[in-house]
Amino acid sequence: VTFGSTMTNVGPPPTGGVWTLVQQKFHVAASGTSCTVGASDGLVSIGAGHVIVVSFMGGIDLPTVSSITASGDTFINANVRQTDSNGGPVEIWYVLSSAGGETSIKVNSASTPNQMSCIVYELSSTQPVAFDISGKRQVTPATTNPVGVTLALSGANDAVVQNIGCGGNCTGISSPYTNFINPQFDGSAISLN
Fold first, then answer.
1. How far apart are CA 90 and CA 93, in angstroms?
2. I need a labelling partner for 19 at 20 to 30 A (CA). Which of 12, 68, 111, 159 fits?
3. pTM for the whole thing?
4. What is residue 47's DSSP assignment?
């Protein structure tokens, strides 16, 4: 899933980069119908106008996200749901401009999975942002080091989040992605440019 930053005036790009990863926090829920990332996971109050990306990874019983709740925000499904060969789904949802002050984000499942995890990325940009492009790719057979989705980006200042449903224990991700995390066998990472 890619978020682009657009210039509102003509001139050189801002120095010091356009995107900043403010925080990346996660929570693993052993069972139940929700996964909440909050203060106990280290989440601090989210800034107003920031991009929030939620990466969801479910157990082998194929849970589906029914909604995501956070004070004042309406999350959009990026429609990149994919399942690995073991049945574990991954999804990405986002908000382009947060209300601000959120201290917990709750991912609600349409079923009661045996386990699920959710990762929250808070991003800020020095320029206005827009959703750019999303894509998904099925790799068969499953591997612990799959190649990510190739995206035709429309801008030069992008934040890209990729989820990896690897059917086992993902071992890492290659450049330009950073902040790899695999709280529950599958993985997620981000690239900022």
1. 10
2. 68
3. 0.85
4. P
Cα–Cα dist 187/88, whole Å: 11
CA distance 128 to 187: 28
Cβ contact 102:73 at 8 Å: yes
- d(CA 177, CA 172) in angstroms, rounded, equals 10
C-beta neighbour count of 153 within 10 angstroms: 13
DSSP assigned state of 39: G
Neighbouring residues of 94: CB distance < 8 A, sequence distance ≥ 6: 1, 3, 51, 52, 53, 54, 75, 76, 78, 131
Q: Are 24 and 181 in contact (CB under 8 A)?
A: yes
Taking the C-alpha atoms of residue 147 and residue 130, their distance in angstroms, rounded to an integer, is 25
HSE at residue 139, side-chain half, CA atoms within 13 A, is: 15
State the Cα–Cα distance between residues 18 and 111, nearest whole angstrom. 39
Give the three-class secondary structure for 40: helix
CA gap 67, 132 in Å, rounded: 22
What is the full per-residue pLDDT of the chain (193 aa) written as tens digits? Answer: 555 543 332 333 333 468 889 999 988 887 778 889 999 999 999 999 999 999 888 766 667 888 999 988 999 998 887 776 566 777 889 999 999 999 999 998 887 777 788 889 999 999 888 888 787 776 666 666 667 777 777 777 888 888 776 666 677 777 777 777 777 667 777 778 7
